[in-house]
Amino acid sequence: MLVFLENSLASEIxxxxxxxxxxxxxxxxxxxxxxxxxxxxxxxxxxxxxxVPEKLWTTTPVILDQIKTQASDGFSIKSQLKxxxxxxxxxxxxxxxxxxxxxxxxxxxxxxAALDWxxxxxxxxxxxMRDANIYAEAARHYAILKGxxxxxxxVSKDMTGGCGNGPGVAQEKIREKSRPILLILDSDKLTxxxxxxxxVKECNKIQSQNDAVFLFKSTDARELENILPLGLxxxxxxxxxxxxxxxxxxxxxxxxxxxxxxxxVEYSYVDIKNGTCKKWIQSKGGAVLKFFVKMPVVSECxxxxxxxxxxxxxxxxxxxxxxxxxxxxxxxxxxxxxxDSNIDQEWMEVGEVVYSFGxxxxxxxx
Length: 366
Ligand SMILES: [Zn+2]
Prior knowledge:
Order of helices and strands: EHHEHHEEEHEHEHEHEHHHHEHHEHHH
Structural class: alpha/beta
Bound molecules: zinc ion
Radius of gyration: 24 Å
Distance between the termini: 20 Å
Number of strands: 11
Number of helices: 17
Largest sheet: 5 strands, mixed
Oligomer: single chain
């Protein structure tokens, strides 16, 4: 997370007592530990260095020098990041305030609150570890395609173990308040107008009721599978041993590509793993039936009789694991060719959020 120490904080530090100076020294250390990225104006750093040199820890001036060198790049990054933290005073305002200014989300807090919330690198939580790993890759793609430094990304990863555990995990992490928390769950929406799962509703409530460095995101699409670039799905399948099954999966991916271009809205809500068949659509009825009405049958479905066929064909149940394995091969140049920032918009949006949350100092100084 980028942490901006405002000039008003620096002015207080220049005349502060030992306790406050200790907090300041601690926050500066977070930059060297590469937990976050500390940003301060060069003039503010000079003021602190001149005013209270005897109260700085031995390593603090060295780290402040690095922060000074990085300041102009830091301000330019800050203007482009979607999420960051601002510290304006030593111990007020007491409460963390989350404000949104022209699309940017800023947590404003005191120095003492910041030391609770920023002790460790940001925590990226998915339903499973493989989801968290995939979201981190989205951030890497976002960084590379936008010309940002992918090495500045630093998150610890965690899992809820399933969508239903989301609210419990969120509350537990908020109670701990040791690090910025980013929780991402599948929305499980069946149509755009659908409310999503109970866990999603509950997590949104937790977010609105807590003063915490906690961000909850759920996919606009049905599941993570729906926002995965089809190029990556195809790349992962191509890694499998040649077999008639593999030919079938590749053929189905081609069909999915056509669906994505002819019915982009519906594509976000089809079942990528198991396929979406007429019988299932009819069993849901109502809004689901109406929503998928324009989609033609593309292949035969093998569900138990009386089914007119798939409107979207199945790829394979394990596709997320395969994509995770494929991404872990770290052939960045290859995987990037498989992502199209114009088509894979939700993938890039998730990447932007994760990148912002995980933005940290990439260079060791001491
Ligand atoms: Zn069927």
